[in-house]
């Protein structure tokens, strides 16, 4: 299992690439939530999301071990992050994307000199192809979340939160495959276990919620949610045990609640964030956290939105 020592090592490994992202506040949002809210702004991170942290840690280790070719299977933030760091290290990368990927995401990957191959419409189709490409060219496949280097890299978000907010009581983070939340859990619970950590998941993509209820990894059928970055079918084999061990609570939010949170942050705070980033804020806004008058840090995981479709995401 990943440890806080791994997270600290990851921080040293990625320090020359990533930003230490700021904490944003809104008096109106805090008043609305009944807690003092702080937003850890990973939408202002390089490549527009937290994913660059884990990708940088993993790709750097792969290149150090001799990798001369990198692949990933992702149409979104992970693919962009892998393409960015591979390009930075002068290693060619191919990102396997779905056939229905949006133009803006493809353009972002190309902008980082990533090659693109389209394959099917599901991760079950993309991942085997990306692994096949890596094997054909003696390269390395970079998984989106279920990898110790990925988890440790994402955990650096937790280290920064503890340094930026010494008196934080609660940390809320979105939950998809579990890379971000498991990294944050490792960093914080092994450093300051008194801090409460709550995961937030869409009601329509509640694979981790169901897995925790059943006490084992449980998959769900393909689903739809505007928080498309959290649309995983099940938690990871490596991430789930960490979540089981450390997570204090996991709450669910509706599509309408996600939309309202997204709208508030855009209209009142002038910040463009992804729907996936809004689930934690939605949990705070709609009183899902079970705390009052506490210092609560919500992780904004990313800001890569296709602005041409923004109207469809708002209430």
UniProtKB/TrEMBL annotation:
<dbReference type="InterPro" id="IPR001926">
    <property type="entry name" value="TrpB-like_PALP"/>
</dbReference>
<dbReference type="InterPro" id="IPR000634">
    <property type="entry name" value="Ser/Thr_deHydtase_PyrdxlP-BS"/>
</dbReference>
<protein>
    <submittedName>
        <fullName>Threonine/serine dehydratase</fullName>
    </submittedName>
</protein>
<keyword id="KW-0663">Pyridoxal phosphate</keyword>
<dbReference type="InterPro" id="IPR036052">
    <property type="entry name" value="TrpB-like_PALP_sf"/>
</dbReference>
<keyword id="KW-0460">Magnesium</keyword>
<dbReference type="Pfam" id="PF00291">
    <property type="entry name" value="PALP"/>
</dbReference>
<feature type="domain" description="Tryptophan synthase beta chain-like PALP">
    <location>
        <begin position="16"/>
        <end position="302"/>
    </location>
</feature>
């Amino acid at each position: 299992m990943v440890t806080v020592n791994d997270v600290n090592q990851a921080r040293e490994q990625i320090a020359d690439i990533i930003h230490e992202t700021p904490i944003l506040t809104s008096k109106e949002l805090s008043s609305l939530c009944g807690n003092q809210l702080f937003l850890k702004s990973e939408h202002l991170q390089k490549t527009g999301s937290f994913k660059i942290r884990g990708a940088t840690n993993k790709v750097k280790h792969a290149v150090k071990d001799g990798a001369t070719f990198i692949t990933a299977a992702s149409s979104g933030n992970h693919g962009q992050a892998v393409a960015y760091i591979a390009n930075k290290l002068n290693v060619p990368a191919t990102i396997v994307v779905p056939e229905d990927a949006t133009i803006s995401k493809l353009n972002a990957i190309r902008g980082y000199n990533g090659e693109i191959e389209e394959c099917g419409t599901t991760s079950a189709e993309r991942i085997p192809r990306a692994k096949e490409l890596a094997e054909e060219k003696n390269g390395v496949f970079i998984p989106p979340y279920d990898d110790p280097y990925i988890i440790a890299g994402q955990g650096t978000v937790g280290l920064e939160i503890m340094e930026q907010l010494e008196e934080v009581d609660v940390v809320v983070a979105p939950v998809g495959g579990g890379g971000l939340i498991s990294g944050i859990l490792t960093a914080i619970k092994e450093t300051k276990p008194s801090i409460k950590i709550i995961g937030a998941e869409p009601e329509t993509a509640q694979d981790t919620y169901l897995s925790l209820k059943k006490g084992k990894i449980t998959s769900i059928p393909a689903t739809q949610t505007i928080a498309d970055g959290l649309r995983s079918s099940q938690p990871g084999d490596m991430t789930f045990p960490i979540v089981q061990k450390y997570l204090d609570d996991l709450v669910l939010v509706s599509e309408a609640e996600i939309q309202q949170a997204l709208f508030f942050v855009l209209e009142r705070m002038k910040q463009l964030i992804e729907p996936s980033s809004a689930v934690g804020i939605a949990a705070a806004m709609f009183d899902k956290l079970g705390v009052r008058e506490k210092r609560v840090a919500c992780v904004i995981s990313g800001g890569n939105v296709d602005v041409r479709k923004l109207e469809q995401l708002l209430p």
